[in-house]
Amino acid sequence: MTLPSADRTPAVADPAAAVAGPAPLSEPAAAPTPRGLRALGPVGLVLAGGISVQFGGALAVSLMPRAGALGVVTLRLAVAALVLMVICRPRLRGHSRADWGTVVVFGVTMAAMNGLFYQSVARIPLGPAVTLEVLGPLILSVVASRRAVNLVWAGLALGGVFLLAGGGGGFSSLDPAGVAFALSAGAMWAAYIVFSARTGRRFPQADGLALAMVVAAVLFLPLGLIESGGKLLNPTTLALGSAVAVLSSVLPYTLELLALRRMPASTFAVLMSLEPAVAAVAGFLVLNQTLSVTEGLAITLVIAASMGAVRTQVGRGRAKNVS
Asked: Fewer CB within 10 Å, N or C, the chain?
C-alpha cells in the first residue's frame, strides 16, 4: 500500500478529495518532466503509478513465504526511507516539538497502515483486500462532505461489502481475519490522509514524508527481524524487497507528482478509484488469484461509490466557486 501505496496530491486539506488515496506532502520545487515520461500524458502517468503500486503489492505477496508479511513490510519501509532521505535530504533543525509530534504520529499511522494491509493480503486475494481498504478513505469522504447524496455512494459501497461477505451468509470465500485486517488498514488509510495534510503544512516539500517513513521503518525493524530471523539479509530477499519498495513507493510517488502538475487533483482522485480493479488484475496475472462473478461485481460497486463520492465533492466545490 501504499506512499504506500502512494502519497497522492499535495497536502490534502479536504479529505473528500482524497477518497481514492493518500496524498504526498507538499510538492517539491518544479522540475522538468523527463521526455519519455512526458509522452505518457498525465492520465498515463497516473495509470502507470497505479499499475506499479498494485504489481508491487503482488510481488510482495509472492515474497511473503520467504520473509513473512512483517519482514516484507520492514524491507519496503526501510528501502523507501533510505531512498527518500537521500532524495529529499530533510532539514532536522528548526522544527518545534509539535512538528516532531505530528511527523511521529504520521509515521506510526503509516507503519500501521502498511502492516495491517500486508497481513490482509497474506490471507485474502489482492483485489478484495484493496477493495475493503478503500472503504476507509471513502467513509472519510462521505463524513467530510455532509451531503445527503453521499448516502447513495455509501449504500453502493456497503452493497459491495455485502457481496464480498457472501451475500450475508458469512465470509464463505474470504478469511475473516484477512477481512478484518483490510478494514483496519482502511481506517489507518483515512488517518494517514489526515496526518499527511497536517505534516505537509508543517514541513517543506516532502521532508515530512521522508522523516515519517524513517519512523515507520524503525518501528517495524524489530518486528521484521523477529518474524523472519536472518532471512531479511539474504541477497535474493533484499533484492526482491527493494523491488517492492521501488514499485510500491518510489516509482508511483514520482509518477503521480509529475501527473499532478498537469491535471486537477479531482481528476487524479477519480482515476485512483480504479485501483481495486488494477489490484484484481495484478493478483490474477502474478499470483493466479481468480475472482468469482460476485466478487467482481462487489469490486465494481466500490469503484462506482468512490468515483461518485469524488464527483459529488468536485461538483460541490464548483458550485461554491460560482456563488
From this structure: C
